[in-house]
């Protein structure tokens, strides 16, 4: 390893430190964090004679599309392998105004990270002829775009060793003219979520319209019937709501306005249509595309119910930018399988670690765009992960920097979920014969805390004769995992993960406890206090005696390694990208399946067949007192 690589490794290690905790996955660096944009220098005049960047078309979304492809042609007479093309939005990124001059004493000209980048020699023959052409995908993100050619690499690192004191850093040599969507403020990327009760569906979307400029609403109704209009609430947040860097500095980007409308008194299982819109002051309406959804079943309803659960999906760029294969290599596969399979499931639970924006706010728009084909049609229920929430000294349980300064604000605003207080990311969902208790592993869950109280309340208030299938979820592994970093510390769980909770899972007969955070798949036997309490492996019947623990963190982010010794309770492990599906056929029959994201096929499954009396009967530590009286 040469000095240059030592220096590069140091830069990468610093970036990694922002993305990981000591006990968390060590891989995975937000690609935008590799760019030392605040150290870039501007050389537009020097190279004006030969350097150029041109993007076509300049007017985007002519047919009101929210996602378009742009061709970028560029070149100059001094091409190097370190040259790169950056996309900036807003287009005017050389404003010279930095938010925290005291943080950057050299007063750099560039204070905003690009929204994506690609190496110039991604285009064949760039190094030979000095001319390149690439195609980039853009989404409507409320502002205009410009494309810039940089030389000198992404980072500020010493290419030739410290003795020569020669620093290579990004140098801007050319900028394109602006490209802009026909209506940059258009409402985009709707996301459904079940409300506080089963008969309430919420739709959340993003636009560039503040409520003073246009009135947000949803027009909706039963398929074939006339629609009604229901107003939406509007939220946003500002740079000051961010807790640290880069979210407060180079990663900041205006989030626009986030609107949520509530569609209430839904008839179970009925098909509804909806269309989001904004009424301008002159009475005209800016509409988004129409969509349909199926209303959730009533709690206890006996009908086919299918639920997708996974975590840690992340995002990637379909144009290959941001070195996408290095960050969340499986995310587009998972997304595409779920889009293809839309007719075969009813609701989605993404249990934390969503875009891994890590303080680069533009990435939240990119993520909502990526999952919009799913979330516009199925309730997309989210949980909080370390990459959404964690930041030191901000009230979370983990004093680490995994959110890149976001401290939960974008996640808690961009998505709706039926929590009492959305700063506390815990809530329950009744979906037909299921109850989900969604916990927040980034806040203290131990006995005596408000979250523990919520968990016990959620688990204890479900009537199992009508809702037999009781599911617990959290992002970090509060149950069991034979992932290597947990095994190395001898815990096989997040430290203090199950110590308080396992007696609740046992007492209230939780069927399955789901976790992410560990980026692989693993399923245990029915388990209590580290002991298998049932010798069956795939066709369970009668009393379960314990809870089955599932890690479903292979949604797309780089994979995590297992420990070599396989614990007795570990029944199936798969070191690959995948997601899981629960199918309740009726009150006594449940199917669990694990699918790989690469082909959508089932690689592990089990069934549970049992009756109400099997849930009621006595199991270890959960026997109810009886009297001898007759
Ligand atoms: Fe995580």
From TrEMBL:
InterPro entries: Calcineurin-like_PHP (IPR004843), Fn3_PAP (IPR040974), Metallo-depent_PP-like (IPR029052), MPP_PAP (IPR041792), PAPs_C (IPR025733), PAPs_N (IPR015914), Purple_acid_Pase-like_N (IPR008963)
Reaction(s) the record says it catalyses: a phosphate monoester + H2O = an alcohol + phosphate
Residue ranges occupied by any Purple acid phosphatase N-terminal domain in the UniProt entry: 190-294
Enzyme class label: hydrolase
EC code(s) of this entry: 3.1.3.2
Gene Ontology molecular functions: acid phosphatase activity; metal ion binding
Record-stated family: Belongs to the metallophosphoesterase superfamily. Purple acid phosphatase family.
Subunit structure: Homodimer.
Protein name in UniProt: Purple acid phosphatase
């Amino acid at each position: 390893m040469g000095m240059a690589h030592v220096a590069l490794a140091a830069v990468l290690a610093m970036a990694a430190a922002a993305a990981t905790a000591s006990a968390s996955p060590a891989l995975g660096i937000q690609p935008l964090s590799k760019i030392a944009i605040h150290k870039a220098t501007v050389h537009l005049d020097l190279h004006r004679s030969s350097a150029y960047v041109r993007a076509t078309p300049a007017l985007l979304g002519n047919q009101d599309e929210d996602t378009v492809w742009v061709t970028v042609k560029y070149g100059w007479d001094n091409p190097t392998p370190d040259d790169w093309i950056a996309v900036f939005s807003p287009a005017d990124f050389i404003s010279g105004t930095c938010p925290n001059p005291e943080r950057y004493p050299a007063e750099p000209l560039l204070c905003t990270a690009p929204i994506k980048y690609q190496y110039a020699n991604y285009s064949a023959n760039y190094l030979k002829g000095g001319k390149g052409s690439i195609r980039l995908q853009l989404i409507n993100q409320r502002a205009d775009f410009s494309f810039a050619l940089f030389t000198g690499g992404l980072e500020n690192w010493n290419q030739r060793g410290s003795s020569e004191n020669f620093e290579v850093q990004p140098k801007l040599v050319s900028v394109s003219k602006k490209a802009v969507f026909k209506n940059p403020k258009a409402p985009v990327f709707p996301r459904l979520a079940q409300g506080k009760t089963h008969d309430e569906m919420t739709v959340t979307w993003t636009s560039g319209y503040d409520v003073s400029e246009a009135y947000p609403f949803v027009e909706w109704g039963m398929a074939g019937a006339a629609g009604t209009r229901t107003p939406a609430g509007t939220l946003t947040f500002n740079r000051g709501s961010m807790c640290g860097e880069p979210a407060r500095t180079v990663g900041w980007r205006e989030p626009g306005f986030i609107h949520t409308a509530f569609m209430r008194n839904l008839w179970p299982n009925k098909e509804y249509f909806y269309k989001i819109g904004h009424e301008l002051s002159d009475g005209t309406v800016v509409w988004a595309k129409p969509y349909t959804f199926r209303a959730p079943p009533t709690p206890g309803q006996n009908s086919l119910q299918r639920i997708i659960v996974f975590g840690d999906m992340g995002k990637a760029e379909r144009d290959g930018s941001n070195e996408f294969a290095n960050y969340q290599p499986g995310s587009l596969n998972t997304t595409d399988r779920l889009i293809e399979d839309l007719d075969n499931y009813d609701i989605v639970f993404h249990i934390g670690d969503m875009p891994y924006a890590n303080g680069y706010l533009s990435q939240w728009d990119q993520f909502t765009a990526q999952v919009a084909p799913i979330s516009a049609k199925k309730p997309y229920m989210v949980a909080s992960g370390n990459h959404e929430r964690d930041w030191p000294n901000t009230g979370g349980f983990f004093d680490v920097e995994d959110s890149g300064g976001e401290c939960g604000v974008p996640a808690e605003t961009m998505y709706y979920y039926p929590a009492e207080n959305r700063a506390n990311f815990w809530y329950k969902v009744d979906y037909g014969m299921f109850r989900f208790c969604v916990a927040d592993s980034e806040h203290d869950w131990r006995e005596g805390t408000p979250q523990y109280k919520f968990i016990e309340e959620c688990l204890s208030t479900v009537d199992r004769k009508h809702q037999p299938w009781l599911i617990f979820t959290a992002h970090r592994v509060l149950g069991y995992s034979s992932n290597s970093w947990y095994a190395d510390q001898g815990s096989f769980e997040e430290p203090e993960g199950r110590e308080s909770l396992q007696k609740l899972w046992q007492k209230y007969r939780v069927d399955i406890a789901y976790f992410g955070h560990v980026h692989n798949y693993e399923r245990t036997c029915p388990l209590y206090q580290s002991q298998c309490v049932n010798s069956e492996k795939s066709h369970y019947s009668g009393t379960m005696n314990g809870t089955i623990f599932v890690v479903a963190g292979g949604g797309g982010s780089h994979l995590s390694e297992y420990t070599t010794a396989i614990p007795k309770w570990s029944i199936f492990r798969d070191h690959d990208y995948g997601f899981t599906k629960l199918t309740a056929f009726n009150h006594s029959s449940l199917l669990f399946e694990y699918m790989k994201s690469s082909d959508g096929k089932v690689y592990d499954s089990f069934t549970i067949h049992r009756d109400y009396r099997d849930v009621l009967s006595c199991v270890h530590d959960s026997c109810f007192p009886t009297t001898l009286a007759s």
